[in-house]
Design goal:
Shape: globular
Largest sheet: 7 strands, mixed
Radius of gyration: 23 Å
CATH topology of the largest domain: D-Maltodextrin-Binding Protein, domain 2
CATH class of the largest domain: Alpha Beta
Structural class: alpha/beta
Order of helices and strands: HHHEEHEHHEHEEEHEHEHEHEH
Helix content: 40-55%
Distance between the termini: 62 Å
Number of helices: 12
CATH superfamily of the largest domain: Periplasmic binding protein-like II
Number of strands: 11
Strand content: 15-25%
Length: 299
């Protein structure tokens, strides 16, 4: 098995087609088929099931894929490290929670893009679970997720401290009032969101449980449902501040065990830390420290 073998496996898995993989790799289908067949003979297992509709990766093939991604990333990092002379350039591809993007990053990204026009930021949103997986699988250079995170392949640094609050319709006046709501529902992001887990814990602590939650893909939809009385949710205070100020929702403080959360930045320990990412994170830390200083002055 060599580097080219792994690249071929990755391309065929992504396209589900030998022909399309060959086009991407700038070769002919027979070369791709021969490489896959030779690799299967070498390993003694089938990596793909062939059919008239194309190819489908087998469990053995899926176990190989992460190594293809890691090796591809390692080669890319080596090339980037050789070219990186300290001047930020190229693509900066990072992930973030929807709430962090809404609350913390817009101005920082705008300032960074203006200061370093040769860098193209690509921002992907997801849940803590999905973003951790994408960083481990070398699909992202790093990501902002909810802490704590403990993984042997990841470097973790705290960047923000958030206070979570319970968000409900204005008809709900206290946490205790939730017990009187028949068929209480929660409105949350999809599975893998750490705020969702905290909300379940909070409700359990006051002696009430919610049925299967309603899942949404945007902050606006979640706040809108909470405002309309469809259900309750847990969000950072800053995210919901405008909706609360406008009288659209009620905001309830919750016990510290559930309210205090850290946003951390994660990246692979063995990855190349580009100049673009280094400078962007420096600006993130500076902004976070400035906010904390302002809070202490107002206290």
């Amino acid at each position: 098995m060599d580097v080219i073998d792994l690249k071929v496996v990755d391309a065929v898995a992504r396209h589900g087609s030998m022909n399309k993989a060959a086009a991407e790799l700038n070769t002919v289908q027979s070369n791709v088929s021969t490489r896959i067949r030779s690799l299967e003979d070498e390993l003694g297992v089938l990596l793909f099931q062939r059919s008239a509709k194309g190819v489908q990766i087998t469990p053995a093939g899926r176990r190989v894929l992460p190594y293809a991604a890691k090796l591809s990333k390692l080669l890319s990092d080596a090339s980037a490290a050789a070219r990186d002379d300290g001047k930020p350039s190229g693509v900066l591809e990072i992930g973030t929670l929807e709430t962090t993007l809404a609350l913390r990053l817009p101005l920082l990204i705008a300032r960074f893009a203006k200061a370093y026009p040769e860098v193209r930021p690509l921002i992907r949103t997801g849940t803590t679970h999905s973003l951790i997986k994408d960083v481990i699988d070398c699909k992202l250079e790093g990501a902002f997720v909810a802490g704590p995170v403990n993984h042997p392949e990841l470097q973790v640094e705290t960047v923000f401290h958030e206070e979570l609050v319970l968000v409900t319709s204005r008809a709900v006046h206290s946490l205790e009032a939730l017990k009187a709501i028949a068929q209480l529902k929660t409105v949350v992001f999809r599975v893998g969101c750490s705020y969702r887990q905290r909300l379940d814990g909070l409700l359990a602590s006051i002696g009430t449980l919610a049925p299967e939650p309603l899942e949404f893909g945007s902050i606006e939809a979640i706040i809108g449902c909470a405002s309309a009385g469809v259900g309750v949710t847990l969000l950072p205070r800053g995210v919901v501040a405008n909706a609360w100020k406008d009288g659209l929702v009620a905001v309830h403080e919750i016990p510290q065990a559930f309210s205090q959360v850290e946003t951390v930045f994660i990246r692979r320990i063995d990855g190349h830390f580009s100049s673009a990412l280094t400078i962007f994170l420096d600006s993130v830390h500076a902004d976070s420290e400035a906010r904390s200083l302002n809070v202490r002055r107002l206290a």
